[in-house]
Amino acid sequence: MRITNKRIFLVASLIVLIFPFIFDSAYTLSIATFAGINCLSAMGLCILMGYAGQVSLGQAGFYGIGAYVSAILSLNYGFPVVFSTLIGCVVSALAAVLLAIPALRLKGHYLAVATLGFGEIIHVVLNEWGPGGPSGFGDIPKFYLFGYVFNTPLSYYFLIWAVVMTLMAFSLNLINSRFGRALRSMHDSETASSAMGVDVPSLKIKAFVLSAVYAATAGAFYAHYVTYISPSSFSLFQSVLVLMMVVVGGITNLWGAVVGAIMITLLPEALREFKEYDILVYGLILILSLLFFNKGLVPIILERLQKGHRA
Amino acid sequence: MSVFLQFLFSGLTIGAVYAMVGLGFNIIYNATSIINLAQGEFVVIGGLLMWFFSESLRLPFLLSIVLAITFTGLIGLLMERLTIRPIKKKDLLLMIMITIAVSIVLRGILMFKFGKDPYNYSPFTEGDPINIYGAYIQQQTLWVIGITTLCIILMYLFFNKTMLGKAMKACAVDPTAARIAGINVERMVMISFVMSAMMGAVAGIAVTPITLMEYDRGPMLAVKGFCAAIMGGLGRGRGSVIGGFIIGILESMTAGYIHSGAKDAVALIIMLVILFFRPAGIFGSKTIIDLRRF
Questions:
Q1: How many Å apart are CA B81 and CA B75, to the nearest integer?
Q2: Over the stretch A103-159, which tens digit does the pLDDT of each residue have?
Q3: d(Cα B167, Cα B254) in Å, to the nearest integer?
Q4: What distance in Å separates the CA atoms of residue A246 and residue A39, rounded to the nearest whole number?
Q5: Is B96 exposed, middle or buried (0-12, 13-18, 19+ CB in 10 A)?
Q6: For testing the chain A interface, which of B41, B83, B100, B111 should be mutated: the one with the most A CBs within 10 Å?
Q7: In chain A, where are the structural domains located?
Q8: Interface of A with B in 78-107 (CB under 8 A)
Q9: H/E segment holding residue B201
Q10: What does the alpha-carbon distance between residue A228 and residue A88 come to, in Å, rounded to a whole number?
Q11: Phi/psi at A179 (nearest 5 deg)?
């Protein structure tokens, strides 16, 4: 049987549906929900880095904008949560345009550092001028839709994973569309693809905007899930985490982002018993996986499977 | 006037540290085209080891300094041997990730050994602060600035006047060509990591009596040092030193006159402005950037 994205998608949807009936404790469901939220950020970064070839170390900035804008609008101005989430995405997209236009000239280290700088500036702004300052604020309304409030772990789990799978279907179609092909050609050679009529600058901006919208969606869903946010969740470390998810899972495959996000979310839970020394174990695992599986897990597994299939 | 001078002095002190971190970045970048994001941890390790040798073990002052620098250099060596050398295909993203991972591990070890408290030891020379037009400058500040100046001069001589330094620069521009010319590229990369770690240690040792040091100071130092390096033009030693001082001074002026919380944003905003309008930095050249691999 050939491995196609459609088949993986069906299997993944099945797992998403069955999972809560096997592991039905509130604890596992909440971790699965966080994994889903991280999947959204990771998918956005995967499109930006793996397909468009642009590095970003500032995803936490977009994530933070999504969370803060949506939380503030729904809490202080009484916006319905769906609208505040959408506005969060729009604001984040605008920020991405503002960042991407001057960043068009940059590549490699310079782009990495420019995006890192952007993320840190957002962090400082939230810290200094966000409601509640460094300690953040609470009482953010839970996500609700048509009068139904998603306030049980199970309902939020399904909400998040429905969003993940929808965006996944969208992204898979997107990368196999004209837009996606243009992105990949730009990744391989900007000169060649602009010679073929690809508008490289506008494509780069679109890729940035797309990743920012994914991250902002994740941020808004995070805020309306935990109902309490503070700037520390949107620091450089968060950007690095998202980067890790994409790299560990495999940057050249969207499913890699999902696998990576799930693994990186589970890791701290698995390391609970190391208490505050978890950071050490965490770093070691990361180094080892970078040294020995630096292509990423999903591409390596797919390669194995395909080889087995041929033999 | 005296308030202004006071801000200026504290800016110079912190600027000197940024300058040293920026220099550390440049040493590795000049030899490998890698940005080592664990650079800030070297500074912290230097300061904390100095405390360990001089205050905890009560070793003589100079011996402690030598030991702290040597051990930090060894950590740089181990880092290169264990995490940089094994990677055959040196892809930009992978290198960024691996240096971040190393910095996480180093932070974990530091917390394991030293805990979360800040550490401090007595300044190099005892004595009252010097009064200049009503502003006070600590003697340790003069040490920091003096040591930074010395390091800059040594770095300049090393990269421009010695065979080893020139060989290291050649590795960054084109490792293959350097190898054909008979340069042992692996060894140059290793030396660059050791030197850069030692440079970080020197900065940490000098500045800890003024700013104190705790295990998680590294990332912010790395970011600021990197801003300094970008400002002066990556790969330009003198540029990053001037960049470091400018950022340090602007930061302390912002904290003093505008808003203390905004100081961390200053360096980043300057960096973004420079990246967007003059990516080669104030002293760098566009041609050199285009020739670089990354």
A1: 10
A2: 877 777 788 888 888 898 898 888 888 888 888 888 888 888 887 778 788 888 889
A3: 41
A4: 9
A5: buried
A6: B100
A7: 5-310
A8: 102-103, 105-106
A9: helix B185-211
A10: 16
A11: -60, -45
Each of the 294 residues of chain B gets a pLDDT tens digit; together they read 788 888 888 888 889 989 989 988 888 888 877 888 899 999 999 999 999 999 888 889 899 999 999 999 999 999 999 988 888 777 777 888 889 889 989 998 998 888 888 888 888 888 788 888 878 888 888 899 899 889 888 888 888 899 988 888 888 778 888 889 888 888 888 999 999 999 999 999 999 988 889 888 888 888 888 888 888 887 777 788 888 999 999 999 988 888 777 788 888 888 888 887 877 777 666 665 555 555
Task: Say if domain A5-310 classifies as CATH 1.10.3470.
Answer: yes
Q: Do B35 and A287 touch (CB under 8 A)?
A: no
Distance from CA of A111 to the nearest CA of B (A): 9
CB contact under 8 A, B109 and A280: yes
| Residue contact A283–B92, C-beta within 8 A | no
Q: How far apart are CA B126 and CA B119, in angstroms?
A: 18
Give B179→chain A minimum CA distance, Å. Answer: 24
Give, in order, the Cα–Cα distances in Å from A242 to each of A210, A218, A289, B4.
Answer: 15, 11, 15, 42
**Chain B contact present for A262, CB below 8 A:** no
Do A49 and B275 lie within an 8 Å CB cutoff?
A: no
Structure tokens given for A10: 């069906």
Q: Which of B26, B41, B81, B97 to mutate to test the interface with A (most CBs of A within 10 A)?
A: B97
HSE on the CB side for B29, CA within 13 Å? 26
The answer to whether the Cβ–Cβ distance between A286 and B96 falls below 8 Å is no
Q: Which residues 6+ apart lie within 8 Å of B259 measured at CB? A: A128
Nearest CA in chain A to B37: A113
Q: Do B108 and A113 touch (CB under 8 A)?
A: no
- Interatomic CA distance for residues B201 and B72, integer angstroms: 6
Give chain B's domains with CATH numbers.
Answer: 2-125+132-291 (1.10.3470)
**Residue B273 amino acid letter:** V
Say what the ipTM of the complex is.
Answer: 0.81
CB of B228 closer than 8 Å to CB of B18: yes
Spatial distance between the Cα atoms of B13 and B206, rounded to a whole number of angstroms: 10
Residue ranges of alpha helices (H) inside A130-199 are 153-175, 178-188, 190-195
Which tokens is A224 given?
């309306």
Measure the CA–CA gap between A218 and A221, rounded to whole angstroms.
Answer: 5
